[in-house]
Predict the 3D structure of the following.
Amino acid sequence: MKLGLMVGYWMFGPENPAPLAQEAERLGYDSVWTAEAYGSDAITPLAWIAAQTSRIKLGTGILQLSARTPACAAMTAMTLDHLSGGRLQIGIGVSGPQVVEGWYGQPFPKPLGRTREWISLFRKMIERKEPVVFDGEHYQLPLRGGSGLGKPLKLINKPLRPHIPLFLGAESPKNIQMATELCDGWLPLWYSPYRPEVYSEALKSAPDNFEIICPVTVSVNDDLVAALQPIKYMLAFYIGGMGARGQNFHANLVRRFGFEKEVDRIQDLFFEGKRDEAAAAVPDAFADEISLCGTKERIRDRLAAWKESRVTTLLIGDRNPETLRLVAELVL
């Protein structure tokens, strides 16, 4: 099993993610990942990290597809892959309707079809075999119905590699299945090694070299109840606040894990403004299964289930160097 570091969003002021990435590289971590929502972008901090490291792989977790055309993403990926010596891997995802339509001003319907076309175009552009012609429902090159002056083009620069790994951030079964068909791996939001049946049907066609890079929060504390608290607050926010009541992909995912009544209760409390009570309503069992919590000895014991799972990389979302060292000691 490999380890990755999730530095997530760049926040505010002079925060520098490079020293933490350098420590992860020293410890033997395989990759470091950035994120974006509607604040900092994922590429700029990753380029900053790339310039100050030499071996660790560089991942976006995730690039939002509505933010960039396939051409923009291909140009960016080609450039950063060259500058980093071939260390780039691209995590992509559709985000949700609140961000796609509220921030990017793009239509959200038919996200699977749009993703499929985006991936196809990105691949063609990076392969650079010929000028790109594409006539899809969501993308056309040259543009259909424009000035009529557009012409098929290909990247001016030759990419360092004809294939840059793509990882799809996906929650629904159909989206995960598409990842096994079109991508090098999958970025789940939450995974429980104790409930592999939740994803087994969607993953049944995955090739042997298909990677699953899974974020796992590590919370070290002799008091297990206290260790679980940050995970429960995070889950309450995603279930209650990250999406509309009638369309919340994260809430739907937790329902598929078997917690339907609990999800309804969490959403009710969250929308009533009772966030502490919403967090308290998150099942301890679920929070525990998707994280590594408790004493060092308990974390070591619970790592066994992860090592036996289909997950290939544990993506550690913690900015404490001591936590990175602990996990490296236990895994590597």
Notes: The first strand starts at residue 2 and ends at 8. The radius of gyration is 20 Å.
